[in-house]
Amino acid sequence: MTELKGLWALITGATSGFGLATARRLAAEGCRVAITGRREDRLRTVAAEIAGRHGVEVPTLAFDVRDLAGTRDALTRAPGLLGKLDILVNNAGLALALDPIQSGDPADWDQMIDTNVKGLLYVTRLVLPGMVERKRGHIVNVGSVAGHQVYAGGAVYAATKFAVRAISDAMRYDVLGTGVRVSNVEPGLAETEFSEVRFKGDSARAKSVYEGLTPLRAEDVADAIVWCVTRPRHVNIQTVLIMPTDQASAHAVRRKA
Known about the structure:
Layout: E1 8-11, H1 17-28, E2 32-37, H2 40-54, E3 60-62, H3 68-77, E4 87-90, H4 106-134, E5 137-142, H5 155-175, E6 180-187, H6 194-198, H7 203-208, H8 218-229, E7 239-242
Parallel strand pairs: 1-2, 1-4, 2-3, 4-5, 5-6, 6-7
Helix pairs in contact: 1-2, 1-8, 3-4, 4-5
């Protein structure tokens, strides 16, 4: 197994959901975790909690991955960070609305594409050269079952997650022979802030997504990410498609009456 104690990880979108759960799990393994997000006050709260519980360094970087200049500035100003990262978890992402193309809001499309695809590329472009130079490192992209199967009203979100799958697969060619590993972790239904964000604060509608079934928890996805990065260095986990037992596909869900 790859020992995590003393390694450095960067986790985007770490103020809630999968990112927060992953930061906690990596820190519990002794990994030093740099966490990013747009909510600076929330970042400080999370950093204090993790550092206090696990005694590791938890620097915070407040920026929006959609902003290339701001992303570059934040990462290059963090003292020595780009020169020592062992793990990057590209977690920042979101879905907005559930409208068909003919009535969709282009502003929602832009935000999903700019965050889920371009933001992932921006952060990776800044982190990956150092990993290649050091001949080690691990990029973990957080995809979705929507990167395999589309559904009504999810055209643009699914397109972004199909893109994450394509980028992850192609990146393996780009880093082949460098010692850098690339994994794509793709969850199904998971109860986080995801649906509340998608439905723009409509808590009742968000809650209905998970009624009658037991969805994944953020901690389940964090477990999968940690499993990927702790495999022996000669092992690359290409893809993990992780679903709740009550879900067989993007379309097939068992709900209790």
